[in-house]
Design goal:
Strand order of the largest sheet: 10-9-8-11-12-13
Strand content: 15-25%
Number of strands: 15
CATH superfamily of the largest domain: Medium-chain alcohol dehydrogenases, catalytic domain
Largest sheet: 6 strands, parallel
Radius of gyration: 20 Å
CATH architecture of the largest domain: Alpha-Beta Complex
Shape: globular
Distance between the termini: 10 Å
Low-confidence stretches: none
Number of helices: 10
Number of domains: 2
Structural class: alpha/beta
Helix content: 25-40%
Length: 324
């Protein structure tokens, strides 16, 4: 089979022959139908978290078709479509075929097209962050970062009835996309004082200073200063949810105490709780509560993986649909 393989060099991939994977007990042999590039894939190829393993196949955002069921599997059949159900690490889906344990995937309903279903895994976090924030209809929501996760959070916040939904970024193209998919207001952090602007948009001038700010803030950017920005714009009792891998950052814990803030993190499925975001995300797509296809930036064959990686690093592509 052919696969997109890490070379061991930073930001370098190659498309080449690899051994065919073998199905195992309680697992499925899957044929990739389409896949996306995650920010964590880019960080891995940038060697941010350690060395790059030569020969490694990346990818965990996918729609795949069952080609063979392993021993002990009774609830899957050849021809079923599968998407991730929770974060179980790297699936290696940037390949013609890969193997997944049944616990790591869920079936795709017939009415959900591949172009929608491929967003289930990033929706784990985008929708999951909105759910974790507890935002209610009519409450204000600020979403910092308008990448794929941030835009899915904007769309999910719209489904909850949050208002106003305020999207913040430094890329005007992404902010335009945020407006397209549901943000009521967009703020370019390079052009305005976002803290002051958010306070003005979410409160009345007569409010006590501690009561000026949004009800929830969802940080979907991977920069440390985002956390301090969120703390500064928060009001008394604001819930701040980290939906991105924010690097080690200095903050003033006194702000958490003084404003009585709630600070939490979300990573794919909500482990330890009964609600699994992967199932909820797929249900939302099946019920047509949101349409993620405006996030797609065209499609590319796996053989063009290096170009897809380069364009994504450069910020020229938001969500490339990779196809075998």
């Amino acid at each position: 089979m052919k696969a997109c393989v890490a070379t061991g060099e930073k930001r370098k991939m190659e498309y080449r022959e690899m051994p065919m994977p073998v199905v195992e007990p309680d697992s499925l042999l899957l044929k990739t139908r389409c896949a996306l590039i995650c920010g964590s894939d880019l960080e891995y190829l940038d060697a941010i978290h350690g060395d790059i393993e030569p020969g490694l196949i990346r990818g965990h955002e996918f729609v795949a078709e069952v080609m063979e069921v392993g021993p002990g599997v009774t609830d899957w059949e050849v021809g079923d479509r599968a998407v991730p159900i929770s974060f179980t690490g790297n699936y290696g889906c940037w390949a013609d075929y890969f193997v997944s344990p049944t616990r790591g995937v869920q079936k795709v309903p017939a009415n959900v097209p591949d172009e929608h279903a491929v967003f289930v895994e990033p929706m784990h976090t985008g929708f999951g962050a909105v759910e974790a924030s507890g935002v209610k209809p009519g409450q204000s929501a600020v979403i910092i970062g308008s990448g794929k996760i941030g835009l899915l959070a904007v769309m999910s916040a719209k489904v909850t009835g949050a208002a106003p939904i305020i999207a913040i970024d430094i890329d005007q193209g992404r902010l335009d996309k945020a407006s397209e998919v549901g943000a009521h207001v967009v703020l370019n952090a390079n052009e305005v004082d976002t803290v002051q602007a958010v306070k003005e948009l979410t409160s009345d001038p007569s409010d006590h200073p501690l009561m000026r700010g949004p009800d929830v803030i969802i940080a979907c950017a991977r920069q440390g200063e985002v956390l301090n920005q969120a703390l500064e714009m928060a009001k008394l009792g604001t819930h701040i949810v980290l939906a991105g891998f924010v690097p080690p950052t200095k903050i003033d814990p006194g702000i958490l105490l003084h404003k009585q803030l709630i600070l939490s993190g979300i990573m794919a499925g909500r482990f330890g709780q009964n609600r699994i975001n992967g199932r909820i995300a797929l249900h939302m797509l099946a019920q047509e509560q949101l349409d993620p296809t405006p996030l797609l930036s065209g499609s590319m064959h796996f053989s063009d993986i290096q170009n897809a990686i380069d364009l994504t690093y450069a910020g020229e592509k938001l969500a490339v649909l990779l196809e075998p």
